[in-house]
Amino acid sequence: MSRIPGNDIQSILLGGLAILFGLTIWQLIGSLGLVSPQLLATPSDVWLAFVDIIHNGYRETTLTENILATLGRSLAGFIAATILGVPLGLWMGRSLATEAAVDYIIQFFRPLPPLSYLVLLILWFGAGDFSKVMLLFLGAFPTITTAAMAGVRQVDSRRINAAYSLGANERQVFLFVILPGSLSMIFTGLRIALAAAFSSVVAAELMAASNGLGWMVFSASRFLRNDVILLGIILLGIFGMALSRSLVIIDHHFIHWRGKD
Amino acid sequence: MRPSIARYISISLLILGWLWLTLGGYVSDLFLPPPNQLYDALIELLNEGYKSRTLWEHIASSLFRVLAGFGSGAILGTAIGLYMGYFRNINSIFAPFIEFLRPLPQLAYLVLLIIWLGIGESSKVTLLFLAALPVSAVAARDGVRNVSAIRIRVAESLGASRAQIFMRLIFPSALAEIFTGARLAVGIVYGTLIASEIIAGTNGIGWMIFDSGRFLRSDFVFVGIFIVGFMGIALDRILLVVEKRVVHWAGK
After folding, report:
1. For residue A115, which of A27, A189, A29, A206 has the smallest C-alpha distance?
2. Hey, are the CB atoms on A203 and B7 less than 8 Å from each other?
């Protein structure tokens, strides 16, 4: 039963047919007037809204601007958390004292839903972009740090000792044994953190923003623009899949030895 | 330095810094309340509740939503995932929808659910249901796929029927991954719940944080964040205990 997820022609065909079938049912429900268009815009309405927004923008913002705002915020928070979290996690993995001093703070933050402290961040830093990026940073940081620490800890100690007895120094052991050995776990942490950051950014944009895809969806809901809401949801789904897929590709490129160890 | 000493130093520095900043008057109580104010706020919440509801009622309504949404989403998601793992064609049909729903920010479809179902309980529970479903489905599917093919052949050659193989072999073997998925799902559901209460709530612990933030009661905000943190840890621990009891053979 241990099959690799199939990407063969039959499965692609079936998947495509299922999507087509779903879209047809959705279109028919609207076209036959089973549900009022106020409640459910049809796929063709969504397409028209898409074309309209590309040409005319949505309430004085262009679609590109909104997409870039959402992606920019998520990536800014995620990259900041990576730059600080990975080195800290590696250090914690190497030093028990560092872990003891820092870990309880990180483990308090890790299960905390980011939105619960958004109120506080807005109080401290205002409702601008800084508090949103800070929110995503705080959401991603504990996950990334914990993954990097766990990555260091699960490196086989026999390999480390073998490297030492072959005459490697601290720096060499770290660069050539510990870092590559923990990379696979670090990447798993990065994927979880990026997905969580993308979810949080939309929630943050619903609460306080003047652009971004989350803002667009929320604003459209107040004007009962069902077509724009659905367009926003579809775009968010596509970008969510693209973000997680791109990390998988980077992962496979860098950690070509995954599963061959 | 010994790890325990490092931890004591770090905790004392944190508390001393907090006391120094707040009691020394370097930071306004509005931004960071001193410890004694947090204690008073907790007592006040316990005695008088918040906005005509007791603290326990807020906690109970949040917990009810989590359990209803997570329970329904995890059960249906696991059932779909088992089918997806067992039958390849069913996987091909469902996979596009599940893969679309999984990375989709949950709050994005909250507004749609509010338009469809109103601002009450049903839209929130549906939101949490949709948040739990894809995570549980993927976990159950991968669990079924990871069952060793040799064991299935052994059972087949010993004359087991398809139903027996499924009930006695595949389902128990997939349980460990199903539970891992359930713990992941409960975390996502819990985060989504807090967010949905903040955006469209009239009660619940997430709403309490948001509402007290609007009235600049940052002592209530802090207490609320601590409660949310402890509840999240408790939910995860409960699932872990259940998992240990049900999948007692894991790791052996």
Report:
1. A206
2. no
CATH architecture of B33-246: Orthogonal Bundle (1.10)
Question: What ranges do the domains of chain B cover?
Answer: 1-31, 33-246
Q: What is the mean pLDDT of each run of 10 residues along chain B (252 residues)?
A: 85 90 84 87 88 88 93 95 90 90 88 86 92 94 89 88 87 90 91 86 88 88 91 90 84 62
- With tokens 């179902």, the residue in question is B117
For A127-182, the pLDDT digits (tens) are 888 999 999 999 999 999 999 999 999 888 898 899 999 988 888 999 999 998 89
Give the relative orientation of helices A43-56 and A226-254 as an angle to the nearest 10 degrees: 80
Structure tokens at A104: 């309880």
115-174 in chain A: CB under 8 A from chain B: 115-120, 122-124
- A-chain residue closest to B235, CA distance: A111
Distance (Å) of CA A215 to CA A196, A198, A210, B7, B190: 18, 14, 6, 42, 22
The pLDDT-based confidence of A184 (bands split at 50, 70, 90) is confident
DSSP, collapsed to helix, strand or coil, labels residue A212 as: coil
Question: Cβ–Cβ of A97/B3 closer than 8 Å?
Answer: yes
Contact present, A148 and A89 (Cβ < 8 Å) = yes
Q: Model-level pTM? A: 0.87
What single DSSP character describes residue B26?
S
Please check whether residue B209 is in contact with residue A116, taking contact to mean a CB–CB distance below 8 angstroms.
Answer: yes
